[in-house]
Write a structure and sequence with these properties.
This protein is an alpha/beta fold and 214 residues long. Helix content is 38%, strand content 20%. It is built from eight helices and eight strands, in the order βαααααβαβββαβαββ. The strands form two sheets. The chain has a six-stranded parallel sheet with strand order 3-2-1-6-7-8. Strands 4-5 form a two-stranded antiparallel ribbon. Strand 4 (135-138) and strand 5 (141-146) form a beta hairpin. Helix 2 (37-48) packs antiparallel against helix 3 (54-61). The protein is globular and about 50 Å long. It starts with a strand and ends with a strand.
């Protein structure tokens, strides 16, 4: 059976929020996108106070992608990876991936962030599978509408199982690992025999082992 080493992305593989990094990257290329900032900030606040779901807040924040064609987006995300994303990795995360890959594990990245730019993480040679929140592509153009659910919590487990079924992979979950900075990933923590929190400073009622990555 296959053993997995599963990694969250934001604040687990990276030391920053990738969506904010992507917006900052896009803003430098097109300063007019600053007009989307107040909308994103308000949406984030409404999410924090419980008036917006995470899905709605994310859709609002990422509305700056609306109308970008697929070919242009491929060039943008490739440039984003080279100029920003590859510079915010925890070296300990990359080292851990290499260690598990050498032991025969498959490396899965599962994140609530947008899959269309997370795909650039396949440039990390150890990565076998990337699962993220999927956004609408219609008539060859990207839009801010999430397809299905925000890939968070229980949805991460569902998407993982769906992917494994489609690929015909049977997993030894007892001897698999999960790394994340957040207890929002408790469903995935509960699915594996070896859960680890990354750089976690808050209350840890489940006594999950904490690793400090740099």
């Amino acid at each position: 059976m296959t053993k997995l080493a599963i990694f969250d992305v934001d604040f687990t593989l990276t030391n920053r929020e990738t969506l904010v990094e992507f917006y900052t990257f896009m803003l430098k290329k097109n300063p007019k996108l600053i007009l989307y900032a107040p909308f994103g900030i308000i949406s984030a606040f409404l999410f924090i106070i419980g008036l917006f779901s995470a899905k709605r807040a994310k859709e609002n924040f990422i509305s700056f992608i609306n109308g970008i064609n697929e070919e242009k987006m491929k060039h943008l995300t490739a440039e984003f990876y080279k100029k920003r994303m590859c510079k915010i990795f925890y070296s300990d995360a990359l080292d851990t991936m290499k260690k598990f890959k050498n032991k025969g594990y498959k490396i899965y990245l599962i994140s609530a962030s947008a899959e269309f730019y997370l795909r650039e993480l396949y440039r990390i040679k150890e990565v076998d599978k990337i699962i993220g929140t999927t956004f609408l592509i219609k008539n060859g153009k990207h839009y801010n509408k999430i397809i299905g659910k925000n890939c968070k919590g229980d949805e991460k487990v569902r998407r993982l199982k769906e992917s494994l079924k489609n690929d015909g992979i049977k997993v030894d979950f007892k001897n698999s690992y999960m790394f994340s900075d957040s207890l929002a990933d408790l469903p995935l923590f509960n699915a594996v025999g070896n859960p680890y929190l990354i750089n976690y400073k808050k209350n840890n009622p489940y006594n999950i082992k904490v690793l400090n990555w740099k």
